[in-house]
């Protein structure tokens, strides 16, 4: 889900080693990404980059020190919380959640302003769309222009929101071309989790939904684009975790030094050369509150206890009239061969008993390194009614 995945991307560390593994940061809690960590924008700043963020933060904000401009970004235009209404920017407790960095600042504004300064300062922008995310809201013309053929009303709205996001990304890439940035540009596109099936997403044929440890909740599609840094078009199918983005992007930016204390691996050479990933295992998560965990080792996945629900196969494409149904009961450990069974239909835990025991022991080793989940303290003083109707830092 949002907060743990964003913490992994920003810090290069597994969320269970930060105490952020259980759920998202809620609006009135005093949680934050630990302030003693150097995170991605701070590292890019050290490399000489101008750094800007637009969009969703969701990593803590009750003190100014927790907010983006104190964590390495030169500017921030966006929202502190996890979601808000798209048209009026209000969310929890009807609080207004759209923050200006002293003046309105949009991604295209940042690009044009940077281009007007005739120097060689490189630019790093972290653009974090709320879309496609609940609530399902979108201007009507995206529905009629792009998605009228979709019969399911929830899927239709989901489709239209995707079209709106696609248009926004297109506007940005057009501006990059007009400003002459594309000859020395790297675009990284990714997501923080699988789709929520109750809001019209389809992870088919993968199992599960957002908020679960099934592949449908954790596997996402990413791409990198560069005219100069990457040669040709190809599909890289190497093993990669969200924690790998930090060291990989820093290496692409020119820093060859290893980053101490992180779990992420620099996979830039492997991606650039289309070579086998040097990563052979990763931890999906270890949640001490829900008492569940999962580990990937090569092509195998072991799951401890129930990995969450919805736990079936949802929103299949046309022609699939009877998707399989989950059994509903789960042993202590399940084992799946993701190379032959990416949809996680066949638990091999009782067939590959020795392998199951070996991977269960490996997973328990990671569990010994877990930081207990930090739930944070609820502070009523943070309610928007105490701050002129808006969400703002300064209350913890």
First and last CA, distance: 25 Å
CATH topology (level 3) name of the domain at 2-186 and 226-279 and 372-386: Alkaline Phosphatase, subunit A
Low-pLDDT residue intervals, each spanning 5 or more residues? none
Number of helices: 9
The main β sheet shows up as: 4 strands, antiparallel
Q: Tell me, briefly, the overall form.
A: globular
User: SSE order, as H and E?
Assistant: HHEEHEHHEHEHHEEEEH
- Order of strands in the sheet with the most strands? 6-7-8-9
Q: What is the CATH class designation of the domain at 2-186 and 226-279 and 372-386? A: Alpha Beta
Question: CATH superfamily of the domain at 2-186 and 226-279 and 372-386, please?
Answer: Alkaline Phosphatase, subunit A
CATH architecture of the domain at 2-186 and 226-279 and 372-386: 3-Layer(aba) Sandwich
Tell me what portion of residues adopts beta-strand conformation. 5-15%
Radius of gyration: 21 Å
- What structural class do the secondary elements suggest? alpha/beta
Domain Sulfatase N-terminal: 1-254
Cofactor: Ca(2+)
Family: Belongs to the sulfatase family.
Pfam family, one: Sulfatase
Describe the structure.
The chain is an alpha/beta fold and 396 residues long. The chain is globular. The protein contains 9 helices and 9 strands. The protein has a 4-stranded antiparallel β-sheet, with helices on one face. A 3-stranded parallel β-sheet has the order 2-1-3, with helices on both faces. The chain has a two-stranded antiparallel sheet with strand order 4-5. A hairpin with a 4-residue loop joins strand 6 and strand 7 (292-297). The chain has a domain at 2-186 and 226-279 and 372-386: Alkaline Phosphatase, subunit A.
